What we know:
Blueprint: E1 5-11, H1 23-33, E2 36-41, E3 58-62, H2 70-74, H3 77-83, H4 92-95, H5 97-124, E4 131-136, H6 141-155, E5 159-167, H7 185-191, E6 194-197, H8 200-209, E7 238-243, H9 255-264, E8 269-274, H10 280-290, E9 296-300, H11 307-313, E10 318-321, H12 330-337, E11 342-345, E12 360-363, H13 369-380, H14 384-401, H15 404-414
Helix pairs in contact: 1-15, 3-5, 5-6, 9-10, 9-13, 12-14
Amino acid sequence: MPSATSLFLLTSFYPLSTGEEFIENEIGHLAHAFDRVIVVATQTSPTDVITRAVPSNVEVIAAGGALPSGLAALKEVLPGLSQLPREALSGDAARNPRILALDAMFENHAHRIADALAAELPGLRLAPGSHAVIYSFWFHVQARLAMLLAADLRSRGVVVDRIVSRAHRYDLYEGETKYGHIPERKLLLGALDGVYPVSEQGSRELRRRWPAFADKIHTRHLGTVDPGEQAVCARSPFHLVSCSNLVSVKRVDRLPVILAGLRSRGIDVVWTHLGDGPQMDAVREAVERAGVGEWTDLRGHVPNTEVLDVERALNPSCFINLSSSEGLPVSMMEVAALGIPILATDVGGVAEIVHDGVNGKLLPAEFTDAQAVDALAWLAGLDADAFQAACAASRQVWAAGFDQAKVYPAFCAEVLGAEESQD
């Protein structure tokens, strides 16, 4: 990698507003590996401000805007059609008007962001002959922007060494989308130097759908910081902890019945949930219907910086996640690092951090309440040594595959082509 190389990191919101908190674990490593990091937030609003501290060699540009919806989105179809590359006008896009419209909106949105970014590039004073790497955090409109940005930089004489993208969940699993389609996959896979799903399951899915590009698709886990002191996991009471936004895909509203089922078996179980969201009222109603209000603590929003301390202080017995869809949740990495057993649905890459019968239990994606109760009763019924072994196994799984001190330096060197400095 030549000296004086700039990295363009394309995000949705980070470091403005809220969201993409997991980038906070990675940004320091990127800043050490590159002379200059330029973060381009692509889905911000005019009132958004920087809410996260960034290293001194990181610059932030807000380009584009929120994803349009309704009539505003439809207005992007016609201009987008005229911008679609020839290679995008084939396959499903050529046969299905709805998919063609999706691709057109996608293309026009990417061009609007690229135009806004182009206006900012002169101020960056990138000298002709200087080098850049472009890293899209999402395999979606940001990855298309990466292609357009690369062309713009090259027209200005900047040498673009590589263009890469991560892939997570909404930007990867086409079968879970409304029309079974995510725009311009073939175009992006053909143009990018590599695509890096955050789970091996995601890599398998992408290779299955696009076998011609299998050699470009490689797993790279996200990572979390070592929290230091681990949790002291207790079972008196048997304390379930969950942490997520309260949205339908998380299925938190099913937990009260599961809690009631455990109590009916004589297990002294309590439950604490960290997080708020549009389903809060539905969860409260489910708690009331199940008659478990006495043993339930819905904490609401907890700042990201406080979550680990709160989870540690609860002396949890088990972290629980009942999502119908996931990539590979950072929340599970964090609790595994604390040495907490996990019960979760076997969706996305969850099985890469929850090893069934070792550091927790896996449930089928479409589990029954009885299956969840049985799995938790198994954990509650382990003898003391076996339970402590499950706690230790969670920490070991994290250390082997999700320690940010290992995964991010490797990502910088092997994917981005830059070694972290040692100062």
